[in-house]
Design goal:
Blueprint (H helix, E strand, L loop, with lengths): L3 H9 L10 H30 L2 H8 L7 H17 L2 H17 L4 H23 L3 H23 L10 E3 L8 H10 L8 E5 L4 H9 L4 E4 L4 H18 L7
């Protein structure tokens, strides 16, 4: 039976964006999943131990109304398995959004999710290394698959933490997986972040990068100093302006 809160959550769910994965990313997901399934209980136990000592997650764990029943947990795992192995993403992502919104309404901040993800990677990496360590290609594929899955999970959870946004984003253009201009494009395309101040802080001297950055809605473009002390000074000056002097748009 659905509660009023569950009905409200269902009504507020945003449209699902199905991830478009390359064949290599799909294979990486399966390489990761094979190891995760074998060690799921061990990794889950470590995550629960970590969460029990975390202020925000501790509250969630102690609140029985926020704890899914065993049947619901099994259903979520099956949805996740079908998403990873069969590409049936929509049911899993809808389920993930419901969970994310429920926890956000209970006061769980987005930073807490980042800490949980960091712990998950820390607990999973040794298992991936032990399984695929003899093959650099397989290990790279599995780690990339894990990170692909975590990116998908976090992007869906983030959709329901709109009030946990930073005051300003310092964005480098040279990122390891998605380039900074694409990140900026996504920020401006999302209703909750389209007015979020974004400062491009990069070592790039290319005029084309600067032009594209402003065209996509960057609020400022700052060339990153090579010297570390100068870099720290630049960040402090940016912080003084954007965090103290600047007035951000009112929340809508």
């Amino acid at each position: 039976m659905k509660t009023d809160n569950q009905s409200s959550i269902n009504a507020d769910l945003s449209k699902i964006a199905i991830p478009k994965l390359t064949p290599e990313e799909k294979q990486g997901l399966q390489d990761y999943w094979n190891v995760y399934e074998a060690h799921r209980e061990e990794v889950t136990a470590k995550l629960q131990e970590m969460a029990s000592q975390h202020a925000e997650f501790k509250f969630i764990l102690q609140n029985s109304t926020l704890q899914p029943e065993a049947e619901e947990q099994a259903r979520s795992r099956e949805l996740q398995r079908k998403a990873v192995l069969d590409g049936d993403w929509e049911p899993y992502l809808k389920d993930l959004q419901r969970q994310g919104m429920s926890y956000a309404r209970a006061g769980l901040g987005f930073q807490a999710w980042f800490e949980l993800v960091a712990a998950f990677r820390r607990y999973m990496l040794p298992h991936l290394v032990n399984t695929y360590g003899a093959s650099a290609g397989l290990l790279r594929s599995a780690v990339h698959g894990m990170d692909t899955w975590l990116d998908i999970v976090m992007s869906n959870i983030a959709d329901h933490n709109p009030h946990d946004l930073p005051q300003v984003v310092l964005l480098d253009l040279k990122l390891p997986r998605v380039d900074g201009l694409e990140v900026l494009r996504r920020i401006r395309a999302h209703e909750d972040t389209r007015l979020l101040p974004v400062v491009i802080l990069t070592s790039s001297r290319e005029e084309q990068d600067r032009l594209k950055g402003y065209s996509l809605g960057a609020n400022s473009y700052v060339q990153k100093p090579v010297d570390f002390d100068q870099f720290i000074g630049a960040v402090r000056q940016l912080g003084l302006y954007w965090l103290i002097l600047n007035e951000t748009p009112p929340r809508q």
